[in-house]
Amino acid sequence: MNPNSQDEPTQPQKIDPYEKILFSGYTDSEIAEMKTLIENWDKATYPTLAHSIVNHADRHDFSNNYLKYLRKANNFNKKGARKTILSDGADRWNKGNEFIIERDGKIVSYGEN
Amino acid sequence: MENLTASNIPKNPHTAKNYIGKVLKHLLCEYKNTREERRQISQWEESKSFSILGEIEIFTTDIEGCASQVITNDELENYQDIIKKLTKINIFDISYFADWYFSEESQFPQIKLYIEKLNYLRLLIIEYISLYQ
């Protein structure tokens, strides 16, 4: 069987509904920026990265403002931030009202206390 | 707090899944009610070498992520990993967290209620997977 055969019916690509929510209303260039920022995230126990980011953003009051959420997480300045190591080995940085949690160099969560 | 009985999960798997979704949705609202207490804890833990808020955040992420997997997938390929993970992440096993939680019982009622419901969701998912996967 030739996997590249034009005659073979192709499986429809499964679309992640959370990716649709995440990118809804943004321009192509904004979506491209979001895709780059998402690469810095860890999906943790969520089914997909998009699902994780939508849930975290919603919980931390960034519903429908996902690009801003991703930018704020990316721009978190660790200089002068207080670092604590959590029981599962993840690092938590806290500065003022903001915090970020990273595991193996990837963002697990970002938010405001 | 929910009534903890021998079995907390509905008998019908579809209803059980909807119930997990409902608890998850409620938790999102409950979290919003903890803002003022989170600010107080944030100030209190500034001088500490641990973070209660960090443990709660990771506990939330891990459990909500597993709940999302259960809700999204009819057949979980990695159900054994999920049970293993959820069994392992008992927040009350963290000594400094337990000390904080039990030593000042009168304080932070909203956040303690949130943690109890989150822990309830953890047990619900374990029960759901044990029964239906």
Describe this structure in words.
The complex is a heterodimer of chains A (113) and B (133). Helix content of chain A is 34%, strand content 19%. Chain A is an alpha+beta fold and 113 residues long. In chain A, strands 1-2-3-4 form a 4-stranded antiparallel sheet. Chain B has 133 residues and is mostly helical. Chain B has helices spanning 13-32, 35-44, 52-72, 79-88, 95-103, 109-132. The longest helix of chain B has 24 residues, at 109-132. The two termini of chain B are 27 Å apart. The chains are: A alpha+beta (113), B mainly alpha (133).
Map the helices and strands.
The complex is a heterodimer of chains A (113) and B (133).
Chain A: H1 17-23, H2 28-38, H3 49-59, H4 66-74, E1 82-85, E2 91-95, E3 98-103, E4 106-112
Antiparallel strand pairs in A: 1-2, 2-3, 3-4
Chain B: H1 13-32, H2 35-44, H3 52-72, H4 79-88, H5 95-103, H6 109-132
Helix pairs in contact in B: 1-3, 1-6, 3-6, 4-6
Q: Main sheet of chain A: which strands, in order across? A: 1-2-3-4
The total beta strand count of chain A reads 4
Secondary-structure element string of chain A: HHHHEEEE
Number of domains of chain B: 1
Biggest β-sheet strands, sense, barrel of chain B: none
Shape of chain A: globular
Number of strands of chain B: 0
* Continuous helix count of chain A: 4
Distance between the termini of chain B: 27 Å
In terms of per-residue confidence, which ranges of chain A show pLDDT below 50 for 5 or more consecutive residues? 1-6
Could you say which structural class the secondary elements and strand pairing of chain B correspond to? Answer: mainly alpha
Evaluate the radius of gyration of chain B.
16 Å
Label the structural class of chain A: alpha+beta
Q: Rounded to an integer, what's the Rg of chain A over CA atoms?
A: 17 Å
Counted up, domains of chain A total: 1
Order of helices and strands of chain B: HHHHHH
Distance between the termini of chain A: 56 Å
